[in-house]
Every structure is written in structure tokens, then in C-alpha cells.
Amino acid sequence: MQTILPVIINIVIVLLVIGVLTFIHELGHFLAAKAVGAKVLEFALGFGPKIFSKKVGETTYSLRALPFGGYVKILGDGDPIEEKVEEGDGERNLSKKPKWQQIIVMLAGVTMNILLAIVVYYIVLASNGWKVMLNSDFENFKPLGAKIAKEVEGEVKYVEVVKDGGAYQAGVPEKGVVKEINGERLIYSTDVSRIVKDKKGEDVIVNICTEEDNCQNYTVRVSDEGKVGMVLPVNYLITLSYAENKVFSGFAHIVNNISLVGKAFGGILGRAKQTGDYTELSHSVSGPVGIYFVIDYFKQFGFLSLLGVIAELSLSLAVINLLPIPALDGGRVFILMIEGILRKDLDEKIEGAIINISFIFLIILILFIIIKDIVNIDSLKNIFN
């Protein structure tokens, strides 16, 4: 029972997170539809058979069996969910509204997800001293409305001497702290490569301490590749600081986060093309199973970490929904823009078929991702261990 309980708790948290993100997204469509005077037939959380439903006024509010999504059924919106649409209500038919109003309704869900992410970012940033820790790979990142800073975590330690390297041949101890090179004091682990990069094939004087007050100079030959033959872990953290831009930090972090994710994904794609191994790329795209392990990992760091996960997922949901796939909001907006440019609506049957086919494609894609995650479940576990 003790091993099952954490799993049950994680599943409940995952369902709650998905439920919150779905509710916020669909609430956007619902409120926008009401604002432009369109008739809302149903507000549903989940897909499939109804578990519970209640009609209030003209709208049926329902909870459905499959808790991975939801929808708002608006009269004339061409929703792929097969429901009997009432005729009439000509002025309340969304398809009869001006294109700009239809676009507002379609983008309202994405807008709500972005607003949720912004609000959560403000909470998380304020609680973390208005800064975010980044991987050392992003040291040269150019943020919007923030500054990149280094926070030193300790001295410049090395954990291994490479056999037959310059340090090995100079008799450098197996482990120690690099204090100076050619008289220059070291602060960051990257200072080593910075100093010796122009000393290829030359000797440098390296001051190393193994214990307090037990320091010694070693004459080390720099290799033709610009290395001294010591393995040096990174001794600093990269922080993205919004301390000087607190008012707009939530909005700025949205832009920076998208840019950071794009750079990280580009790096993964580049490595995959170079090595021919697409395993890392495969793991970067995940579904409910992946979310389970993300939740399981970050919950140990407390409520704020879970809030951060919710913000990231909300932003991801917004980005995904902006893709130009007909069954998604971005695709619907794309169709509306084409119709606006041509000043002619697509045939309802053709548009409905396009949306239905793309919706089926999305369901198949989601199932494929879930199966992929289940097959690679051990790899997912290892990522978060």
C-alpha cells in the first residue's frame, strides 16, 4: 500500500493539473463567445461518454470520461465533436459573426493559458528573489528585460587528472583546487580554458592546493588542443535576474522561456542530426506519462516548484494550440484568415471534413506519444532519477 499510495497521489495531481489547464483554456473560449453574443451549447471537461451533465440556461456543463482535454461547443463553430446543433439563432451563430470576432473566440483559450503562465511566473519569481537558475549552456543567452549573472558556488576544483595529459606528466595530484595560472587568480572554472587557449604547446605555471596552506606550483604543458589535462566541473550557476524589472518580469519571462526552449530544442535536434541518435529528441516530446514523471520529480521541491510546472505546461499548451492544424485554435484562425482574404467562406462540409480528419490525426498522435512513453518508461524514470 505504501508503494501504491505515491502513485495514486501523482495520478491525482496530474489529473488536477490537466483539469486546471483545460478549464482555464476552455473558459477563455466560453467567455469570449459570450462576449461576442454567440450561443454556447456545451462546456465540457474531458472527452467521450458523459459522467455528469447539467443544463443551466442554454448551456450544458458536462464532465466526460477521458480526462485529457475538453471543449466548448459553440453554435456554428464547426467543432469536431459530433453533437446535434440547434438551428436558428441566426445572429447568435458564431459562423455568422465578423471574422475578427471569430478569431478572438478562437484565440481566447490560448490567451488564457498565457495569462495563467504569466500570473504564476510572477508568484514564482517573487518567491525566488526575482531570479531563475539556468543551465551553464545558456551563459551567452541574451534575455529580454533581464540580466544574465554568474553565481560562484565554490573554488575551481578538479576531480580527475587525464592520463598522459600535461597535468599528469607534471605530477599534479589526482584531486585538488586550481588557485592560479601564470599568476592570474581563478574565480570561474571556465577561466582555465580562457587563460590557456592562447598557450597551445607552451608551458604554464599552475598553482594547486590539495589541502589548506598546502599549495604548490606545477609547470604544465598545454596540449595542441588548448587543454591542460584536468577534469573541472562547473563551479558556478547561471541566473536570469529580473531584479531590475520586477513589474514586467512575468511578461518578459514568457518571451525568454520560449527562446530558451527553442535554443534547447535546436541543440537536441542538432545533436540528433549529427549522431543519428534521435532518442533524446524522442524524450523531449511527451504526453500524460511524461507529465506524471515531471510531477513526481518536482513535487519533492515543494508547492512553488509544482506551480512552476503548471506555468510551463500552460505555456506549452498555448504554443501547441497555435500550431496551424485545423482541429487546433491556430488552424481555425488560419482558416478564418484565408476566408477573410478571399472574402468567401469554405464549404461547410469541406471545412468540417478537414477539421474532423485533423482531429482524428491528433487523437492518433496523442495515443502514439502515450504508447511511446510507456515503451520507454524506464528511460523516463532514469531522466528524473
Write up this protein.
With 385 residues, the chain is α+β, with helices and mostly antiparallel strands. The chain has two domains: 4-125 and 292-383, no CATH class; 157-234, PDZ domain (Pdz3 Domain), CATH 2.30.42. Helix content is 48%, strand content 21%. The chain is built from eleven helices and twelve strands. The strands form four sheets. Strands 5, 7, 8, 9 and 10 form a five-stranded antiparallel β-sheet that branches. Strands 3-12-4 form a three-stranded antiparallel β-sheet, with no helix packed on it. α1 (4-35) crosses α7 (288-298), α2 runs antiparallel to α8 and α2 packs antiparallel against α9 (329-342). The longest helix is centred in the first third of the chain and has 32 residues, at 4-35. The model is unreliable at 79-85 (pLDDT under 50).
What is the fold's blueprint, element by element?
Elements: H1 4-35, E1 40-56, E2 59-74, H2 99-127, E3 131-134, E4 147-152, E5 157-158, E6 160-161, H3 166-169, E7 176-181, E8 184-185, H4 190-196, E9 203-211, E10 214-221, E11 230-231, E12 236-241, H5 249-275, H6 279-283, H7 288-298, H8 303-321, H9 329-342, H10 348-375, H11 377-383
Helix pairs in contact: 1-2, 1-7, 2-5, 2-8, 2-9
* Proportion of residues in β-strands: 15-25%
Question: Which bin fits the share of residues in helices?
Answer: 40-55%
Residue windows where pLDDT falls under 50 for at least 5 positions: 79-85
> How many domains make up the coordinates?
2
What's the order of the H and E elements?
Answer: HEEHEEEEHEEHEEEEHHHHHHH
Determine Rg (CA atoms, Å): 28 Å
Total beta-strand segments: 12
Average pLDDT reading:
87
From the helix content, strand content and strand pairing, which structural class follows?
A: alpha+beta
Morphology: elongated
N- to C-terminal distance:
22 Å
